Amino acid sequence: xxxxIVGAQLGDEGKGGIVDVYxxxxxxxxxxxxxxxxxxxxxxxxxxxxxxxxPSGAVRGKVGVLGNGCVVNPATLFEELDALRQRGLDPxxxxxxxxxxxxxxxxxxxxxxxxAKSDTDDEVxxxxxxxxxxxxxxxxxxxxxxxxxxxxxxxxxxxxxTVPLKRALAEDVxxxxxxxxxxDSEGDVDEAFDVDALFEEYREYGRRLREEGMLVDAGDFxxxxxxxxxxxxxxxxxxxxxxxxxxxxPYVTSSNPTAGGACTGTxxxxxxxxxxxxxxxxxxxxxxxxxxxxxxxxxxVPGDTPGYDGDPDDPRTESEKLAARIREAGGEYxxxxxxxxxxxxxxxxxxxxxxxASGFTGLAVNHVDTLxxxxxxxxxxxYTLDGEEVLTMPAPTERWAACxxxxxxxxxWPEFDGAAVAAEGxxxxxxxARAYLEYLEDELDTPVYAVGVGPGREETVVREHLF
Length: 467
Ligand code: GDP
Ligand code: IMO
Ligand code: MG
Prior knowledge:
The strands form 5 sheets. A 10-stranded mixed beta sheet has the order 9-7-5-2-10-1-11-16-20-21, with helices on both faces. Strands 15, 17, 18 and 19 form a 4-stranded mixed beta sheet that branches. Helices cover about 35% and strands about 20% of the residues. It has about 475 residues and is an alpha/beta fold. Magnesium ion (MG) binds near residues 11, 12, 38, 39 and 40.
């Protein structure tokens, strides 16, 4: 059977931790979209693992698959694998031949376009990993697939077609000399547009992928495992509101984190995914990286929150102080940049939208410990838009930005020992925390399967075993 893990909000809901908890009973953990823009944290035995590309199940020794819906930077992949090996793990990761390859020029172009948009404050705040430009090339039928790396002739032909186009885009459209573009951490920027250099480097990745037996046809590979009775977990990256179709376009990533992506991004039929569990991962409040609206935001982060120029390190208003407190308690700082993340109250219309888009069969609600100790916990229950109450997110992003949240307040709960509560079970959560969770169950008509009460594996209250 299958279990699909989907971020219900804006990413960073704690998907990695939940994959780790439930992954115990999985045989295979497959990513179906995104690339090294993800940052999934697994805390185990006092060790913290931050994975951007390798599926989180690797920490438990599960077979990991990067499905055809992923975009793969081979440099990151091998770096991560080598780092895990140095820490004593033995990751077994397969990559779909149909997954697309992120090249250095994609990363450079990601930076160039963000820079160009920043003149008018229109930048998305991407992770700079070349995700958007790679999916653009996939849709534009000029991308290279992982399987192509193992075929030097195809690799060279495609690079000879694509690279001059990319150089012209940078230089003639954006007016940026690629020698001055900078911002690519993988080495010399000129080399990012040098067919010969790219050919040599990527042919070598192709050789390594083939020699290490990592190349698979993901749909066949996974279908065979399922036929053999294996349990397969699909690990979504990002979240519903940054889904390119169901999110707040254009402040989105370029793939489908929603459950449909698990079919198109692995090569398995909708019935296979639909037969299994689809678990929506919810953070008990909200965090956001990058720009775009956020109706329940508390305080703000300059550069990301539209029109905000306060200082997150010097909170003055009540709302800024609450934001600072939640940010501190929840560790809401970018994993790579250390920049403060935007935080806000739980947005329930957003969750209704997410539950419908993916058909959640259950929820995992994380960071219930982070809110402990607050006198009151607030949620955005609905919005007011043009004088009317609306219960779900309107589609145009500008309309969503115009929504005023109608807040609902719950009595807070005291701090508690997460590991002890997880060991004793759901009934030992503070009563007000349970009331909060039961409100969510009612509103989304979906049971809460698990509750995160701390970052560690043993700090998760598991109500339902999934496989
Ligand atoms: P992902 O991208 O959805 O996998 O989430 P991230 O790993 O980017 O961010 C979640 C952060 O919160 C990580 O540092 C986790 O270790 C941590 N975390 C996850 N669940 C909980 C929880 O229930 N309580 C607390 N305090 N931290 C959690
Ligand atoms: P995980 O899997 C949070 C955001 C970026 C930016 C937008 C587009 O850890 O939850 P991209 O680089 O994908 O083109 O950026 O999406 N973003 C994320 N935010 N968590 C993530 O992943 C994210 N991946 C991308 O900040 O606003
Ligand atoms: Mg993350």
